[in-house]
Amino acid sequence: MQSVFSSPNPILFGPGSAGLTGEKLKALGCTKVLVVYDPGIRDAGIADKIVGIIEAAGIEVVRFDRVEADPPDWMVEEAGALGVREGVDGVVGLGGGSSLDTAKGAKLLLTNPPPISQYFGREGVVTRPSKPLVVIPTTAGTGSETTPGGVITDTGKGIKTNIAGVGCRIDLGIVDPELTVGLPPAVTAATGMDALCHAAESYTSALSNSFAEITGREALRLIGKYLVRAYENGADMEAREGMMLASTLGGMSMSGPLCHLAHDIGKTLGAKFHVPHGNGCASCLPQVLEAVAEAVPEKVRYVAECLGAEIPAGASAAEIGAAARTTVQALMKRIGLPNLKSFGLEKEEILAVVPEGVEMMQQGLTRLFGRGTSPVPATRERVTDIVSRAYDEN
């Protein structure tokens, strides 16, 4: 099978690298930039720190600090309109996945007229090149600093969809583990599980390839080594750096294979019930791994063993799947990850929308690539079983 891999944009990685933000923007020719972030980044003082670094380089800053989770289309259009009004010649995304995706959308709208809905989709969407974009993640989970598009909520249809193409591509990712030191344990847990989902799903994807396997396997190894440590001691710089590297590698591993059932479930939960992205994707990961073990048992074995499972040689696919399920469940409990019941949702209301949503997403991928990304058929019956069991068991 042919391998598809999108080489990521340049990445500047390492403790203290955020201090070079102004210098790098000047090298890109920027004189006035739109800095996009959420209220949490503002209140934590991170925004002021980065803005100060940019301004010290002689670059004017326009702030957009109203990013919302699961960024809605109208909010992205507000950010883009602000950039157009102010005549910015660059964009900086600062924060978690929602901020980085909003920044990608704002960049796109600097040179591509609204509404942003006309640029939704993975294939066949034509956009004009835009101004430079620098993204600075402050969580170890999204991997958005390496992906060529973003996820936006289509409020008219009530679904999460994609933007992509040259109009929103990243010119530089700056990955500084020091920016994650102050993250609360709950955020460390949720974003770390998002990184785990990226790596595990792309590694086990039906479209997986040699490139994704290299990056995905290393991301899984790092997560197994460092996630609990980062959760239990947020000042552990070795663990913080290891998780940021895992997150970046996880983003790279998605280039081509994409994710499958856990992310499809998480995206539907986010769009319909506003369940935070990392929590939504991880909510059914134990049962997803158990389900796909019948198709890719040795890959599921590797995922489980990275997280501490001891699986005997000669174990059946069913035994490997069960071991993966219990291992991930134990990890989720250790880092205090909330389950589906914690969000006040009834099983019946989840089952009324999630299986259909997952089936539609996999069908859409089949139309684009000739088959879906799930290594097992993503029927409504299978997804119903996964979600139902996850609701009762996790």
Structure, described:
- This protein has helices spanning 21-27, 39-43, 46-56, 73-86, 97-111, 185-204, 210-232, 237-253, 261-273, 277-282, 285-292, 297-306, 317-334, 347-351, 354-369, 380-393, and strands at 11-13, 32-36, 60-64, 90-95, 133-137, 149-154, 159-164, 172-175.
- With 394 residues, it is α/β, with parallel strands linked by helices.
- A six-stranded parallel sheet has the order 1-8-5-4-2-3, sandwiched between helices. A two-stranded antiparallel ribbon has the order 6-7.
- Helix 11 (285-292) packs antiparallel against helix 13 and helix 12 (297-306) runs parallel beside helix 13.
Number of helical regions: 16
| Distance between the ends | 36 Å
- Fraction of residues in β-strands: 5-15%
Helix content: 40-55%
Order of helices and strands: EHEHHEHEHEEEEHHHHHHHHHHH
Apparent shape = globular
Oligomer: single chain
Main sheet specs? 6 strands, parallel
Low-confidence stretches: none
Give the averaged pLDDT, no decimals: 94
Radius of gyration of CA atoms, rounded to a whole number: 20 Å
Structural class: alpha/beta
Strand order of the largest sheet: 1-8-5-4-2-3
Q: What's the count of strands?
A: 8
Short description:
This protein has 394 residues and is an alpha/beta fold.
Detail the topology: elements first, then pairings.
Layout: E1 11-13, H1 21-27, E2 32-36, H2 39-43, H3 46-56, E3 60-64, H4 73-86, E4 90-95, H5 97-111, E5 133-137, E6 149-154, E7 159-164, E8 172-175, H6 185-204, H7 210-232, H8 237-253, H9 261-273, H10 277-282, H11 285-292, H12 297-306, H13 317-334, H14 347-351, H15 354-369, H16 380-393
Parallel strand pairs: 1-8, 2-3, 2-4, 4-5, 5-8
Antiparallel strand pairs: 6-7
